Amino acid sequence: MTLPSKKPNRRRRPFGAAPAADPPPALAATPAPAPASDRGSVVQASLYRDGREVSSPATLAETFRRLRDTPDGMAWIGLHRPSEAELLSLAAEFDLHELAVEDAMEAHQRPKLERYGDTLFVVLRAARYLDAQEEVDFGELHVFLGPDFLITVRHGAAPDLSAVRRRMEETPELLALGPEAVLYAILDAVVDGYAPVVAGVQNDIDEIETEVFRGDPEVSRRIYELSREMVEFQRATRPLVGMLHNLMAGFAKYGTDEELQRHLRDVADHVTHTSERVDGFRQALTEILTVNATLVTQQQNAEMRALAEAGFEQNEEIKKISSWAAILFAPTLVGTIYGMNFDHMPELHWVYGYPFAILLMAVVCTSLYVIFKKRDWL
What we know:
The protein is 57% helix and 14% strand. It is built from 11 helices and 7 strands.
Protein backbone atom coordinates (compact mmCIF):
# COMPACT_ATOMS: atom_id res chain seq x y z
CA MET A 1 0.00 0.00 0.00
CA THR A 2 1.34 3.44 -0.96
CA LEU A 3 0.42 6.30 1.32
CA PRO A 4 -0.01 9.82 -0.02
CA SER A 5 2.77 12.26 0.60
CA LYS A 6 2.99 13.67 4.13
CA LYS A 7 2.18 17.32 4.74
CA PRO A 8 5.41 19.02 5.79
CA ASN A 9 3.70 21.98 7.51
CA ARG A 10 1.40 19.94 9.79
CA ARG A 11 1.35 21.47 13.27
CA ARG A 12 3.09 19.13 15.81
CA ARG A 13 4.20 19.11 19.40
CA PRO A 14 5.72 16.30 21.49
CA PHE A 15 3.13 13.91 22.91
CA GLY A 16 2.38 14.75 26.55
CA ALA A 17 3.87 18.24 26.35
CA ALA A 18 1.97 21.44 27.04
CA PRO A 19 0.16 23.01 24.05
CA ALA A 20 1.85 25.86 22.24
CA ALA A 21 0.61 29.36 22.85
CA ASP A 22 0.00 30.27 19.19
CA PRO A 23 0.26 28.33 15.93
CA PRO A 24 2.98 29.32 13.48
CA PRO A 25 1.77 31.94 10.98
CA ALA A 26 2.63 29.74 8.01
CA LEU A 27 -0.13 27.32 8.93
CA ALA A 28 -2.87 29.68 7.90
CA ALA A 29 -1.92 29.30 4.26
CA THR A 30 -1.55 25.50 4.35
CA PRO A 31 -3.97 23.96 1.84
CA ALA A 32 -6.28 21.22 3.00
CA PRO A 33 -5.95 17.65 1.64
CA ALA A 34 -8.68 16.19 -0.44
CA PRO A 35 -10.40 13.43 1.53
CA ALA A 36 -13.80 12.05 0.65
CA SER A 37 -16.39 14.76 0.69
CA ASP A 38 -19.23 12.70 2.07
CA ARG A 39 -19.54 11.62 5.67
CA GLY A 40 -18.78 7.98 4.75
CA SER A 41 -18.03 5.84 7.78
CA VAL A 42 -17.59 8.78 10.16
CA VAL A 43 -19.67 8.04 13.25
CA GLN A 44 -18.89 11.39 14.85
CA ALA A 45 -16.21 14.03 14.47
CA SER A 46 -15.89 16.80 17.03
CA LEU A 47 -13.43 19.54 17.88
CA TYR A 48 -12.73 20.41 21.50
CA ARG A 49 -10.91 23.25 23.18
CA ASP A 50 -10.28 23.43 26.91
CA GLY A 51 -12.45 20.35 27.35
CA ARG A 52 -15.52 21.74 25.60
CA GLU A 53 -16.90 21.03 22.16
CA VAL A 54 -16.50 23.93 19.76
CA SER A 55 -17.78 22.31 16.56
CA SER A 56 -19.00 19.05 15.08
CA PRO A 57 -17.97 18.92 11.40
CA ALA A 58 -19.92 16.76 9.01
CA THR A 59 -16.97 15.57 6.89
CA LEU A 60 -13.32 14.73 7.33
CA ALA A 61 -12.29 17.62 5.09
CA GLU A 62 -14.19 20.09 7.23
CA THR A 63 -12.72 18.52 10.38
CA PHE A 64 -9.18 19.02 9.06
CA ARG A 65 -9.88 22.65 8.11
CA ARG A 66 -11.47 23.56 11.42
CA LEU A 67 -8.69 21.90 13.42
CA ARG A 68 -6.15 24.11 11.67
CA ASP A 69 -8.26 27.15 12.49
CA THR A 70 -8.62 26.18 16.17
CA PRO A 71 -5.47 26.95 18.17
CA ASP A 72 -4.86 24.41 20.93
CA GLY A 73 -7.84 22.42 19.69
CA MET A 74 -8.26 18.65 19.72
CA ALA A 75 -10.07 16.56 17.11
CA TRP A 76 -11.85 13.37 18.12
CA ILE A 77 -12.84 11.39 15.04
CA GLY A 78 -14.82 8.16 15.32
CA LEU A 79 -14.95 5.79 12.33
CA HIS A 80 -16.73 2.49 11.79
CA ARG A 81 -15.23 0.18 9.16
CA PRO A 82 -13.78 3.07 7.12
CA SER A 83 -12.85 2.85 3.47
CA GLU A 84 -9.27 2.87 2.25
CA ALA A 85 -9.68 6.40 0.88
CA GLU A 86 -10.80 7.70 4.28
CA LEU A 87 -7.85 6.11 6.09
CA LEU A 88 -5.42 7.42 3.50
CA SER A 89 -6.78 10.94 3.88
CA LEU A 90 -6.33 10.67 7.66
CA ALA A 91 -2.81 9.33 7.16
CA ALA A 92 -1.91 12.28 4.96
CA GLU A 93 -3.39 14.86 7.31
CA PHE A 94 -2.06 13.50 10.61
CA ASP A 95 1.14 11.90 9.33
CA LEU A 96 0.13 8.38 10.40
CA HIS A 97 2.63 5.62 9.89
CA GLU A 98 2.09 3.34 6.92
CA LEU A 99 2.26 0.09 8.94
CA ALA A 100 -0.32 1.33 11.45
CA VAL A 101 -2.67 2.34 8.64
CA GLU A 102 -2.32 -1.10 7.03
CA ASP A 103 -3.21 -2.76 10.33
CA ALA A 104 -6.27 -0.54 10.68
CA MET A 105 -7.40 -1.45 7.16
CA GLU A 106 -7.00 -5.20 7.50
CA ALA A 107 -8.12 -5.55 11.13
CA HIS A 108 -7.82 -9.01 12.78
CA GLN A 109 -4.94 -7.74 14.92
CA ARG A 110 -3.96 -8.80 18.40
CA PRO A 111 -4.01 -6.15 21.16
CA LYS A 112 -0.86 -4.08 21.03
CA LEU A 113 0.60 -0.64 21.61
CA GLU A 114 3.15 0.89 19.23
CA ARG A 115 4.72 4.33 19.11
CA TYR A 116 5.58 6.02 15.83
CA GLY A 117 7.31 9.27 16.71
CA ASP A 118 4.80 11.39 18.62
CA THR A 119 1.86 9.19 17.55
CA LEU A 120 0.57 6.17 19.45
CA PHE A 121 -1.20 3.29 17.74
CA VAL A 122 -3.29 1.08 20.02
CA VAL A 123 -5.24 -2.06 19.13
CA LEU A 124 -7.91 -3.29 21.55
CA ARG A 125 -10.26 -6.28 21.49
CA ALA A 126 -13.62 -5.50 22.99
CA ALA A 127 -16.15 -8.15 24.00
CA ARG A 128 -19.83 -8.34 24.80
CA TYR A 129 -22.02 -11.19 26.04
CA LEU A 130 -25.07 -12.08 23.95
CA ASP A 131 -27.72 -13.46 26.32
CA ALA A 132 -30.00 -14.89 23.64
CA GLN A 133 -27.26 -16.93 21.94
CA GLU A 134 -25.28 -17.47 25.18
CA GLU A 135 -22.04 -16.63 23.40
CA VAL A 136 -19.33 -13.97 23.41
CA ASP A 137 -19.09 -11.50 20.54
CA PHE A 138 -15.71 -9.85 19.96
CA GLY A 139 -15.01 -6.52 18.28
CA GLU A 140 -11.80 -4.75 17.34
CA LEU A 141 -10.85 -1.15 17.98
CA HIS A 142 -7.87 0.75 16.57
CA VAL A 143 -6.87 4.05 18.16
CA PHE A 144 -4.51 6.64 16.67
CA LEU A 145 -3.36 9.14 19.27
CA GLY A 146 -1.42 12.32 18.56
CA PRO A 147 -0.74 15.67 20.23
CA ASP A 148 -3.99 17.22 19.01
CA PHE A 149 -6.09 14.39 17.67
CA LEU A 150 -7.59 11.03 18.54
CA ILE A 151 -8.96 8.70 15.86
CA THR A 152 -10.91 5.54 16.63
CA VAL A 153 -11.43 2.91 13.94
CA ARG A 154 -14.00 0.35 15.00
CA HIS A 155 -14.46 -3.09 13.42
CA GLY A 156 -17.53 -4.84 14.83
CA ALA A 157 -20.42 -3.87 17.08
CA ALA A 158 -18.32 -3.57 20.22
CA PRO A 159 -17.32 -1.33 21.81
CA ASP A 160 -19.94 1.43 21.79
CA LEU A 161 -17.91 4.61 22.27
CA SER A 162 -20.88 6.98 22.40
CA ALA A 163 -21.07 6.51 26.17
CA VAL A 164 -17.36 7.33 26.48
CA ARG A 165 -17.83 10.52 24.47
CA ARG A 166 -20.80 11.58 26.62
CA ARG A 167 -18.87 10.84 29.80
CA MET A 168 -15.88 12.89 28.68
CA GLU A 169 -18.04 15.79 27.51
CA GLU A 170 -19.79 15.81 30.92
CA THR A 171 -16.38 16.12 32.63
CA PRO A 172 -14.64 18.91 30.69
CA GLU A 173 -11.85 19.17 33.26
CA LEU A 174 -10.85 15.60 32.34
CA LEU A 175 -11.32 16.11 28.61
CA ALA A 176 -9.14 19.24 28.83
CA LEU A 177 -6.20 16.96 29.63
CA GLY A 178 -6.09 16.03 25.94
CA PRO A 179 -6.12 12.91 23.77
CA GLU A 180 -4.35 10.91 26.44
CA ALA A 181 -7.35 11.31 28.76
CA VAL A 182 -9.67 10.07 26.01
CA LEU A 183 -7.44 7.03 25.44
CA TYR A 184 -7.61 6.11 29.11
CA ALA A 185 -11.39 6.54 29.09
CA ILE A 186 -11.60 4.18 26.10
CA LEU A 187 -9.38 1.65 27.85
CA ASP A 188 -11.60 1.89 30.91
CA ALA A 189 -14.74 1.36 28.81
CA VAL A 190 -13.28 -1.67 27.03
CA VAL A 191 -12.14 -3.26 30.29
CA ASP A 192 -15.45 -2.49 32.05
CA GLY A 193 -17.20 -4.19 29.12
CA TYR A 194 -15.46 -7.42 30.10
CA ALA A 195 -17.36 -7.62 33.42
CA PRO A 196 -20.73 -8.71 31.92
CA VAL A 197 -18.87 -11.22 29.77
CA VAL A 198 -17.16 -12.69 32.82
CA ALA A 199 -20.52 -12.93 34.62
CA GLY A 200 -22.18 -14.55 31.61
CA VAL A 201 -19.38 -17.08 31.17
CA GLN A 202 -19.48 -17.94 34.88
CA ASN A 203 -23.21 -18.63 34.57
CA ASP A 204 -22.58 -20.79 31.49
CA ILE A 205 -19.95 -22.82 33.34
CA ASP A 206 -22.36 -23.38 36.25
CA GLU A 207 -25.01 -24.62 33.80
CA ILE A 208 -22.48 -26.85 32.05
CA GLU A 209 -21.47 -28.48 35.33
CA THR A 210 -25.13 -29.32 35.98
CA GLU A 211 -25.57 -30.70 32.47
CA VAL A 212 -22.42 -32.82 32.76
CA PHE A 213 -23.65 -34.67 35.85
CA ARG A 214 -27.13 -34.88 34.39
CA GLY A 215 -25.73 -36.71 31.38
CA ASP A 216 -26.82 -34.20 28.70
CA PRO A 217 -25.52 -35.55 25.35
CA GLU A 218 -25.08 -32.00 23.93
CA VAL A 219 -22.85 -30.76 26.75
CA SER A 220 -19.58 -31.78 25.06
CA ARG A 221 -20.29 -29.48 22.13
CA ARG A 222 -21.15 -26.60 24.47
CA ILE A 223 -17.92 -27.11 26.43
CA TYR A 224 -15.90 -27.08 23.23
CA GLU A 225 -17.54 -23.90 21.91
CA LEU A 226 -17.13 -22.07 25.21
CA SER A 227 -13.48 -23.18 25.42
CA ARG A 228 -12.84 -21.64 22.00
CA GLU A 229 -14.43 -18.39 23.16
CA MET A 230 -12.19 -18.40 26.23
CA VAL A 231 -9.14 -18.76 24.00
CA GLU A 232 -10.27 -15.63 22.14
CA PHE A 233 -10.98 -13.92 25.45
CA GLN A 234 -7.45 -14.73 26.64
CA ARG A 235 -6.02 -13.23 23.46
CA ALA A 236 -8.03 -10.08 24.12
CA THR A 237 -7.15 -9.60 27.80
CA ARG A 238 -3.69 -11.03 28.39
CA PRO A 239 -1.75 -8.58 26.13
CA LEU A 240 -3.58 -5.67 27.78
CA VAL A 241 -1.74 -6.29 31.04
CA GLY A 242 1.64 -5.66 29.42
CA MET A 243 0.29 -2.72 27.40
CA LEU A 244 -0.96 -0.90 30.48
CA HIS A 245 2.27 -1.51 32.35
CA ASN A 246 4.16 -0.02 29.41
CA LEU A 247 1.94 3.05 29.54
CA MET A 248 2.51 3.38 33.28
CA ALA A 249 6.26 3.07 32.76
CA GLY A 250 6.12 6.21 30.58
CA PHE A 251 4.36 8.39 33.17
CA ALA A 252 7.52 10.25 34.19
CA LYS A 253 8.98 10.46 30.70
CA TYR A 254 5.89 11.99 29.10
CA GLY A 255 4.69 14.00 32.11
CA THR A 256 1.33 12.25 32.46
CA ASP A 257 -1.17 14.06 34.65
CA GLU A 258 -1.58 12.54 38.13
CA GLU A 259 -5.33 12.12 37.69
CA LEU A 260 -4.76 10.15 34.50
CA GLN A 261 -2.16 8.05 36.30
CA ARG A 262 -4.76 7.08 38.90
CA HIS A 263 -7.28 6.24 36.17
CA LEU A 264 -4.80 4.03 34.35
CA ARG A 265 -3.74 2.19 37.52
CA ASP A 266 -7.40 1.43 38.21
CA VAL A 267 -7.85 0.12 34.66
CA ALA A 268 -4.70 -2.00 35.04
CA ASP A 269 -6.07 -3.56 38.25
CA HIS A 270 -9.36 -4.41 36.53
CA VAL A 271 -7.75 -5.96 33.47
CA THR A 272 -5.38 -8.02 35.64
CA HIS A 273 -8.33 -9.36 37.60
CA THR A 274 -10.24 -10.12 34.39
CA SER A 275 -7.25 -11.88 32.85
CA GLU A 276 -6.90 -14.08 35.93
CA ARG A 277 -10.61 -14.93 35.82
CA VAL A 278 -10.38 -15.88 32.14
CA ASP A 279 -7.38 -18.11 32.84
CA GLY A 280 -9.41 -19.75 35.60
CA PHE A 281 -12.36 -20.26 33.26
CA ARG A 282 -10.21 -22.01 30.69
CA GLN A 283 -8.69 -24.28 33.33
CA ALA A 284 -12.15 -25.06 34.73
CA LEU A 285 -13.48 -25.93 31.27
CA THR A 286 -10.51 -28.25 30.70
CA GLU A 287 -11.26 -30.04 33.96
CA ILE A 288 -14.99 -30.20 33.19
CA LEU A 289 -14.22 -31.70 29.79
CA THR A 290 -12.05 -34.35 31.46
CA VAL A 291 -14.80 -35.16 33.97
CA ASN A 292 -17.37 -35.34 31.19
CA ALA A 293 -15.15 -37.72 29.20
CA THR A 294 -14.78 -39.91 32.29
CA LEU A 295 -18.53 -39.95 32.92
CA VAL A 296 -19.25 -40.73 29.27
CA THR A 297 -16.74 -43.61 29.39
CA GLN A 298 -18.33 -44.96 32.57
CA GLN A 299 -21.76 -44.72 31.00
CA GLN A 300 -20.56 -46.54 27.88
CA ASN A 301 -18.94 -49.24 30.03
CA ALA A 302 -22.19 -49.66 31.97
CA GLU A 303 -24.14 -49.96 28.72
CA MET A 304 -21.66 -52.50 27.36
CA ARG A 305 -21.88 -54.47 30.60
CA ALA A 306 -25.66 -54.42 30.42
CA LEU A 307 -25.53 -55.62 26.81
CA ALA A 308 -23.12 -58.37 27.76
CA GLU A 309 -25.36 -59.50 30.62
CA ALA A 310 -28.37 -59.46 28.33
CA GLY A 311 -26.44 -61.50 25.77
CA PHE A 312 -25.38 -63.98 28.45
CA GLU A 313 -28.97 -64.41 29.59
CA GLN A 314 -30.05 -64.94 26.01
CA ASN A 315 -27.36 -67.56 25.57
CA GLU A 316 -28.57 -69.36 28.68
CA GLU A 317 -32.11 -69.42 27.36
CA ILE A 318 -30.89 -70.64 23.99
CA LYS A 319 -28.98 -73.44 25.75
CA LYS A 320 -32.10 -74.52 27.58
CA ILE A 321 -34.22 -74.45 24.47
CA SER A 322 -31.59 -76.34 22.48
CA SER A 323 -31.23 -78.94 25.23
CA TRP A 324 -34.95 -79.65 25.42
CA ALA A 325 -35.16 -79.70 21.65
CA ALA A 326 -32.41 -82.34 21.55
CA ILE A 327 -34.11 -84.40 24.28
CA LEU A 328 -37.45 -84.31 22.50
CA PHE A 329 -35.80 -85.04 19.17
CA ALA A 330 -34.56 -88.45 20.33
CA PRO A 331 -37.98 -90.15 20.83
CA THR A 332 -39.23 -88.41 17.71
CA LEU A 333 -36.41 -90.00 15.74
CA VAL A 334 -37.10 -93.49 17.15
CA GLY A 335 -40.83 -93.13 16.62
CA THR A 336 -40.27 -91.91 13.05
CA ILE A 337 -38.07 -94.89 12.18
CA TYR A 338 -40.49 -97.46 13.57
CA GLY A 339 -43.42 -95.67 12.09
CA MET A 340 -42.31 -96.42 8.53
CA ASN A 341 -44.54 -98.96 6.73
CA PHE A 342 -42.11 -101.58 5.44
CA ASP A 343 -42.73 -105.36 5.64
CA HIS A 344 -39.13 -106.37 6.15
CA MET A 345 -38.03 -104.23 9.09
CA PRO A 346 -36.10 -105.64 12.11
CA GLU A 347 -38.18 -106.17 15.23
CA LEU A 348 -41.33 -105.19 13.29
CA HIS A 349 -43.17 -108.39 14.34
CA TRP A 350 -41.23 -108.88 17.57
CA VAL A 351 -43.38 -109.27 20.67
CA TYR A 352 -41.11 -106.98 22.70
CA GLY A 353 -40.62 -104.44 19.90
CA TYR A 354 -42.93 -101.81 21.35
CA PRO A 355 -41.57 -101.95 24.94
CA PHE A 356 -38.06 -101.92 23.50
CA ALA A 357 -38.79 -98.79 21.48
CA ILE A 358 -40.28 -97.03 24.51
CA LEU A 359 -37.33 -98.08 26.67
CA LEU A 360 -34.89 -96.86 24.02
CA MET A 361 -36.60 -93.47 23.91
CA ALA A 362 -36.50 -93.19 27.70
CA VAL A 363 -32.83 -94.16 27.89
CA VAL A 364 -31.80 -91.67 25.21
CA CYS A 365 -33.83 -88.82 26.73
CA THR A 366 -32.51 -89.54 30.23
CA SER A 367 -28.91 -89.71 28.98
CA LEU A 368 -29.24 -86.37 27.16
CA TYR A 369 -30.84 -84.77 30.22
CA VAL A 370 -27.99 -85.93 32.48
CA ILE A 371 -25.35 -84.67 30.03
CA PHE A 372 -26.95 -81.23 29.63
CA LYS A 373 -27.50 -80.93 33.35
CA LYS A 374 -23.82 -81.57 34.08
CA ARG A 375 -22.90 -78.83 31.62
CA ASP A 376 -25.35 -76.40 33.25
CA TRP A 377 -27.40 -76.12 30.12
CA LEU A 378 -30.54 -76.98 32.08
